[in-house]
Amino acid sequence: MLNEVMFYLFALVILVFSVMTVITRRILRAAVYLLFVLVSTAGLYFMLSYNFLAAVQLTVYAGGIVVLVIFSILLTSHLSERAAMASMKESLLSALATVAGAALTLMTILRYGFTPNQGADPHYTITDVGTALVSYKRDGYALPFEVVSILLLAAMIGAIVVAKKERTLKK
Amino acid sequence: MIQNIPLSYFLTISTLMFFLGIYGFLTRRNLITMLMSVELILNSVNINFVAFNKYLYPQQLQGHFFILIIIAVAAAEAAVAIAIIINIYRNFKSIDVENVDEMKY
Amino acid sequence: MADFTYTLLIPLIPFFTFLLLGLAGHKMKPIMAGLIGTSGLGASAILAYSAAISYFWTGHSAGTPYTSIKAFEIPWLHLTDKLTIHLGVLIDPISVMMLVVITTVSLMVHIYSIGYMKGDTGFSRFFSFLSLFSFSMLGLVLATNIFQMYIFWELVGVSSFLLIGYYYYEKPSAVAASKKAFIVTRFADLGFLIGILMLSFNTGTFDFQTLTDPHGPAIAQAGGAAFMGLSLLTWSLIFIFVGGAGKSAMFPFHIWLPDAMEGPTPVSALIHAATMVVAGVYLVARLFPVFALGAPDALYVVAWIGGFSSLFAAVIACTQTDIKRVLAFSTMSQIGYMMLALGVSGYGGEEGLGFMASNFHLFTHAMFKALLFLGAGAVIHAVHSNEIGDMGNLRKFLPVTHITFLIACLTIAGIPPFSGFFSKDEILVAAFHSNKLLFAIEYLVAGLTAFYMFRLYYGIFWGKNTHYHHTPHEAPKVMTIPLMILAFGSVFAGFLPFHDLVTSDGKGFESAIDWFVAIPSVLIGVVGIVIATILYKKESAMPDRIAGSLKYLHRWAHRKFYIDEVYLFVTRKIIFRYISVPIAWFDRHIVDGTMNGIAGMTVYAAYAVKGLQSGKLHQYAFVFVSGAVILVLIFVYLV
Q: ipTM of this model?
């Protein structure tokens, strides 16, 4: 019962703040609303007893990316600024396309009728996840782990190079 | 698995969130808010993975690791995107996509 | 038979000096450029003389006919098996004679120019052009085939263009004159090209030796297809003669020659008196067997054009006041003589008297006309004017020029024993035996020639005591020595045994002075001189009175019979207005319009679709999303 209430609460928060994120004209508020969405998503993960995922969601998404976004908002715009939006005609067209897409997708999903797996749920702990992450045996994820680490390195270097001031070219 | 909550509820939330993200991407003109819309889209996909993993294949960890990797990629993407946005801001004194149309025609 | 391969060097040496002076001339001291050009030409001249001596005397066994020798030949453009263009060196009496003429005059002009052009800004450019011209002209006379001749024919045209326009930076009239010369001759060359194509298409060869072989295909096919009463061969030769008439300033293509006098005087002497303008005569002489044996009608045209031009030019020359223009019309008149001599000639032996006389006159004329021009140059150098009215009584100031000019005038007037007498006499004899009317014209022209030359002579060296701002002074040695050498040539060239050397069929024949023709021709020359003496030796009002009494004739002749105006009328009022303007309209509106229409449609289409490439990210995203939705709809639900 509590679980149900919690789920509906999280679902409501996610949907409401998603809507707020995309329609508010104040950029900084949009970022804060996004934070709420991400935190609620982490709540859903907790409810599904994926604790490690929830923690990662909180630290990386809520803690890292949103903070980065807020920094860049502060760097590039004034607080009093109102974000420009599309014209009415464009907004309506976009709404039409997205509503059509959502309707199509929902119809497909709801008509499918998934049958949940009734098998035992082993309830993996963080230790299990960590072991699998660095394992190179069967069901081990050492290779994706390494690939992602290289991707992060590349992204870091790339971000630095792109954002760096080009002194020689400026002159 | 949560008692009395079917898989389709998760999928519905994720679908709605996905298309809200798309709506934001289409209507926003500010590059940072567009980036936030993209984060919404990624997040909705994450919910899907988690739900499928939990409801359909609880013995396995594929969805788990997919999400981890998506989060890593999202972080990388955000970093690079913000670097680009700052660069654009420096060149155009604005991060409005309507001003960044030098490459047209 | 001697080996003549070395004659290849005769044109090549000037070519190399042209390259050297053209590419590096501006870095040299002017005198250095002059010396290089002159010494190169000197080397060519020595080779040409040795070739002439060896061809005519030492390398030739007496009593045998002179043959034509291909000293050198390479296939240059191998287009098809039938169409191959060769470049080579052809040695025969007329080409050897022309080598001597060209190298002699060119060398004299080079030496003279060192003094005449001194201090000029384009000194090395001038000498490089002179070298280019010498190369082209030598290549022209040595051509083994008509196509090679055409190539060098155009090259001499270009050098002439460059040299007439030499003062382009200070005289707009020089620019106009160079364009006029180039366009008029180029227009005539179109006829030449058509003639070459017709002739070669019929005979299947460009080669001169094959063409002029009396038993060769050209002459064998003489009878061929007819058009307007004349055979194809005749037409092709008439077209070729049109090219020759253009280069040789025959009526009606003569209009460029007087204007060409805008060029520096040494250039006039070299190109527009002694060498290039006789290229037309050389062309007809080169193809003479074809003319004489295959197409006597074409030769008839040559004779009448020559005869008419000589009379026409002589009349105009009597009224001109610019000394170089008088000489230009005199040149035209003398070339008319040569053409006429060729036109009345037959082929072989005594019949070929006119051919021999024409080449003889070409030779002597080159000497005395170059002398006249260089003398006129010395006069202009001294008084800085071309107008006869600005001169007078110069004999005390310019003694050497005076004497040499007088010799040249006596030569051209046909007074024995100067060379002009011999060559002109041969022409008159040839005309007398062929066509009495042409003979009468030439007889009259001989008198007119003597008259206008002595009018010029007295106008410059005698006449009124003109007051000069600067006392005129004799030209430097470097200019007077060429004058003396050419005067020597003018005096003694007449004693060369041309009837043994340069004949239509290579065999010598006996020729003696026909006193029945010679005495009257000398007499009319003397009459001309006497009239000129009476009128012009002392300043008097008589010339003006005579001009007044012949009002219309004088005015017409002075305006060159309005031929220039006729040309202008025809080109401006008829060709430009009724042909060029509609063609230009067609080009501008129909041809350009089609192209602009295609371009415009492309632009229009581009504007129509360019909205798709707006550069606006959200538009792209919108199209992408709605496209994806529609595709899902189609493939998941509708298909």
A: 0.90
